[in-house]
């Protein structure tokens, strides 16, 4: 008997959700069975996260019914859902940086022995979970300072210790490279074999064929299509998501100018996360940086932009040594970083769109040292329109979809008209429609003569947007490939040296 022949462990019927006068879910029906992976797909704003939050007890449905193993199900909060056997891995990391890895894995449900916290048991179980995901790290280590990819693996390990009957995975591979993704997929196959049902949300559509048993597509708060197999062409899925034919994903990459804009010479990090890195980026060039998680890509670009210290080496701009010692110094010299974690490092979520844009452009929005809301609004509205942000200037950034949040981060820095733009995972957790518009922005920058550096764990992406690609492996520079020589095989051969 296959999963399709069994009764659903979770059933949703006519689920609606209304916020004020806006209905964001329009009568959703969904079944999940034991031992199957249901891929829940759709653009940002399609309603996937809202539906997941209802299932996991974070919000209540306005109308409709849910059953769990045939009994009525309406969790009052995430704890109630967890107690029932429903776990969720959020796209937004929710770890506590001042606690150890083991404490984060078991936070809110510490293991006890003789009336005391059993730290040894927690550390052993946490370490075992991390090792299954390929992360060999002490469970006693504080989360603070760990890379986004490692934090994502900890979140996954945390969910896998729940002994849940249903797991909701929201963009679990967004920060992971190919090797880490395959380790996760092997764990998912084991969970399926144990009868766990899985709702899998991802914008990496190439993964779906590998992992999904069924596909449910949402658009504008409605369920628009369902496929009884995961073996569906990516184009077919995308067209169902966006409601139109998709002609292309990556725009034409402009030819760079001959003049070198940025040069990095023998750059080394104090902690040796990278060493002896040298490269140059021409005016109007898109320079990609690829490599597996832990290769030192993010640490490198943070050092180049002054966010992390440099042990030795130089950064040159137009032939002059400018090695920045702080982000502020880099920004003043025309080098800006769009960080990989837009929610923690790129935006103040509780503040408005116009305030976020204004923070990076205070000289432009103030007069005589005074800032007026009228001047701020006028300045921000220009860039909200220019970058196609779907939201009003006074709306909080935290209310936007991931794609629109990323557009705000881009808008606030590009308003400064920088000479070098560094994009670390520019489309992480962003739907296919928003990705396309961000790729267009990247090419517009290149055509304007800006030097662009793109760091991405998505190999198709870095191949699609780059004039040249530098591949890193274990903190070393493994090689630089011209666009005509770069492909999946040549990049991965260097990445695994």
TrEMBL record:
GO terms for molecular function: ATP binding; ATP hydrolysis activity. SMART domains: AAA. InterPro entries: AAA+_ATPase, ABC_carbohydrate_import_ATPase, ABC_transporter-like_ATP-bd, ABC_transporter-like_CS, P-loop_NTPase. The keyword Transmembrane does not apply. It is a peripheral membrane protein. Gene3D superfamilies: P-loop containing nucleotide triphosphate hydrolases (3.40.50.300). GO terms for cellular component: plasma membrane. It is found in: Cell membrane. Residues 10-245, 255-497 form the ABC transporter domain. Coiled coil: none annotated. The keyword Cytoplasm does not apply. Keywords: ATP-binding, Cell membrane, Membrane, Nucleotide-binding, Repeat, Sugar transport, Translocase, Transport. PANTHER family: CARBOHYDRATE TRANSPORT ATP-BINDING PROTEIN MG119-RELATED, D-ALLOSE IMPORT ATP-BINDING PROTEIN ALSA-RELATED. Belongs to the ABC transporter superfamily. This is Sugar ABC transporter ATP-binding protein.
């Amino acid at each position: 008997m296959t999963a399709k022949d069994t009764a659903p462990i979770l059933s949703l019927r006519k689920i609606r959700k209304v916020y004020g006068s806006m209905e964001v879910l329009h009568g959703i029906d969904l079944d999940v069975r034991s031992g199957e992976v249901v891929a829940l797909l759709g653009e940002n704003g399609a309603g996937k996260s809202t539906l997941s939050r209802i299932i996991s007890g974070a919000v209540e449905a306005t109308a409709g019914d849910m059953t769990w193993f045939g009994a009525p199900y309406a969790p009052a909060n995430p704890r109630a859902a967890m107690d029932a056997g429903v776990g969720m891995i959020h796209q937004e990391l929710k770890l506590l940086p001042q606690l150890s890895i083991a404490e984060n894995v078991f936070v809110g449900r510490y293991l006890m022995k003789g009336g005391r916290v059993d730290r040894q048991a927690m550390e052993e179980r946490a370490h075992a979970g991390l090792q299954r995901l390929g992360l060999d790290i002490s469970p006693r280590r504080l989360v603070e300072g760990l890379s986004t990819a490692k934090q994502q693996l900890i979140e996954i390990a945390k969910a896998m210790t729940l002994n849940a009957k249903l797991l909701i995975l929201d963009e679990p591979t967004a920060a992971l490279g190919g090797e880490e993704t395959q380790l996760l997929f092997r764990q998912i196959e084991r969970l399926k074999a144990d009868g766990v049902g899985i709702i899998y949300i991802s914008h990496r559509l190439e993964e779906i064929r590998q992992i999904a048993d069924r596909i449910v597509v949402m658009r504008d708060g409605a369920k628009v299509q369902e496929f009884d197999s995961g073996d569906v062409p990516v184009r077919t899925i995308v067209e169902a998501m966006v409601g139109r034919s998709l002609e292309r994903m990556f725009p034409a990459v402009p030819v760079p100018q001959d003049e070198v804009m940025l040069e990095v010479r023998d750059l080394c990090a104090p902690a040796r996360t990278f060493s002896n890195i040298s490269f140059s980026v021409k005016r109007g060039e898109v320079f990609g940086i690829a490599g597996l998680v832990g290769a030192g890509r993010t640490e490198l670009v943070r050092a180049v932009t002054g966010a992390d210290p440099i042990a030795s080496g130089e950064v040159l701009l137009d032939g002059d040594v400018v090695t920045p010692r702080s982000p502020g110094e880099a920004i003043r010299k025309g080098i800006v970083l769009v960080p990989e974690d837009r929610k923690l490092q790129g935006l103040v979520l509780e503040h408005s769109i116009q305030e976020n844009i204004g923070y990076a452009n205070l000289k432009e929005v103030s007069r005589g040292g005074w800032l007026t809301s009228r001047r701020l609004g006028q300045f921000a509205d220009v860039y909200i329109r220019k970058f196609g942000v779907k939201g009003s200037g006074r709306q909080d950034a935290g209310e936007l979809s991931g794609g629109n949040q990323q557009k705000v981060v881009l808008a606030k820095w590009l308003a400064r008209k920088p000479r070098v733009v560094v994009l670390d995972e520019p489309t992480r957790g962003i739907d296919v429609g928003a990705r396309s518009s961000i790729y267009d922005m990247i090419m517009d920058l290149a055509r304007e003569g800006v030097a662009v550096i793109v760091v991405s764990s998505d190999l198709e992406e870095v191949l699609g947007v780059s004039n040249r690609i530098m591949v890193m492996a274990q903190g070393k520079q493994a090689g630089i490939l011209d666009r005509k020589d770069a492909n999946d095989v040549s990049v991965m051969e260097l990445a695994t040296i």
